[in-house]
Amino acid sequence: MNPIIRFENVTKRFGALTVLDNFNFEVQRGEKVTLIGPSGSGKSTVLRILMTLEPFQDGHLELDGTSYHEPNGRGPFKASEKHLHKIRCSVGMVFQSFNLFPHMTVLRNVVEAPVAVLKMKRDEAESRAIELLRMVGLSDKKDQFPSQLSGGQQQRVAIARALAMRPRVLLFDEPTSALDPQLVGEVLGVIRDLAHEHDLTMLLVTHEMRFAREVSDRVCFFDKGRIVEQGDPERFFSNPQQPRTREFLSSILGDQEPVRESLRCAL
Amino acid sequence: MTWTQYLMPLLKGAQVTVTISLASIAIGAVLAFAAGIARTSSNRFLSGIAFAYIVLFRGTPLLVQLFWFYYALPLIGISFDPVTTGIMVLSLLTGAFGAEVVRGALLSVPPSQLEAARALNFSKTYTLWHISMPQAVIEMMPAFGNLAIQNLKDTALVSLISIADLTFQAQSLRNITLDSATVYTLTLIGYFLIALCLMFAMRFIEMKLRRGPAFPRSAHS
Q1: Do residues A152 and A184 lie in contact, with contact meaning Cβ atoms separated by under 8 Å?
Q2: Do A109 and A154 fall within a single domain?
Q3: I need a labelling partner for B71 at 20 to 30 A (CA). Which of A149, A177, B26, B114 fits?
């Protein structure tokens, strides 16, 4: 079966800084992949390139057989806006800082894109939005504004908003990093439920190692713009092969996890 | 002549002042949005035209602009009556300053909002009008309030292209009565009262926009 996402020797530079260096990466349809690694290792960049928020310079990237670059494409993205629009139809993204629209109610945040972009009828979009909000446990908040919600609730709305566009690939960019520890669980719960959707391909950048182990089919460890080690989460966490991976895991699991664990106990 | 007899001509002048001011604020606002949006556009041509317009009108004195449009333009065959000229020049000036306000406010919308809009596949136009503008417009209001009052005070200069505004009427009255103190005091009060109304109107619009929980900063303003 063809992979839904295929990076082939992709190189991404920010000025003199090379963030991804001849990067190769494939994701199968329906696969749940977690990307971990130190900050600046390029894992978020992978998501941002897939969402067409960042262009890349060299190499080839395909989503479901469609190349990101067009043969005669112009501009930094080497593609027309129309082509990028088509690609984005299959991809959704959940951001670290939620990025809800502050001037719209929760319901309108979820309804706006299906109506404006997918040309869905408003009442149809609304009933679907309410269903999605129920799924993330927030149907009673539909008439509130984002500023009236907690961080965890905002992130759950953001997940509903992304799902309303029916993406085939859903990207999570550190979805719980901006949350207070006691709010992390509710967001992870929603993502965990989503992980049961067989058709949905998920890429998750996170520092929640236990969660990564629990929900993902594959874990990829990034360092300096490359995947240093990847594999099945059980094997990856219990028996990492590369010294750099071991170092990273011990620094994360050795210090942070018990801290967060004790915090949870305290609360 | 007692001071109450000054009121009729002054009120007539005030009426002209208010008309010119309101008309040029309204047209200026349209120009401000058009030029401000054009400045943030990725289209070099549009952005360039807007830039030239803003620089020209911000960089030259209003009085000279008025004289140029009133005395110089007719020499190349284009002439307007004084009131039209006054409204036109003031609109262009207010629009030029307003354009920078619009541009600044649009740039102050967090980039993360634009990324979210892009991730949801909104078109650029849709993002501008439904995501950026509603958030930016609130940021513009205090500066727009300043511009409106500046505009009102600038209207005094149109008396110099023979428009019978409040200042013009005051000059005429003083020339007849030589009662400078009373005439100019009344004129000052007149401008101040109009300015007060403008301030309240702008504040009212700002409050209307800020109202509601979407922009909780209103609680502190």
Answers
A1: yes
A2: yes
A3: B26
From A188, A161, A159, A160, select the one nearest A176 (Cα to Cα): A188
Measure the CA–CA gap between B149 and B152, rounded to whole angstroms: 5
Q: Which ipTM was obtained for this model?
A: 0.90
Single pTM value for the model: 0.87
Residue of B nearest to A83 (CA): B121
Domain boundaries, chain B: 3-219
Q: Are residues A103 and B113, on separate chains, in Cβ contact within 8 Å?
A: no
Residues B141-159: tens digit of each pLDDT:
999 999 999 999 999 999 9
Structural domain that includes position A58: 5-90+170-266
Kindly list the residues of chain A whose beta carbon comes within 8 Å of any beta carbon in chain B.
Answer: 51-53, 81, 85, 88-89, 91-93, 95, 97, 99-104, 112-113, 116-117, 144-145, 147-148, 161-162, 165
pLDDT band at A97 (very low <50, low <70, confident <90, very high): very high
> What is the CATH code of the structural domain delimited by B3-219?
1.10.3720.10
Q: What pLDDT is stored for residue A251 in this prediction? A: 86
Q: Do A101 and B116 touch (CB under 8 A)?
A: yes
Q: How many CB atoms lie within 10 A of CB B66?
A: 23
* Contact call for residues A136 and A175 (beta carbons, < 8 A): no
Residues A84 and A186 both lie in one domain = yes
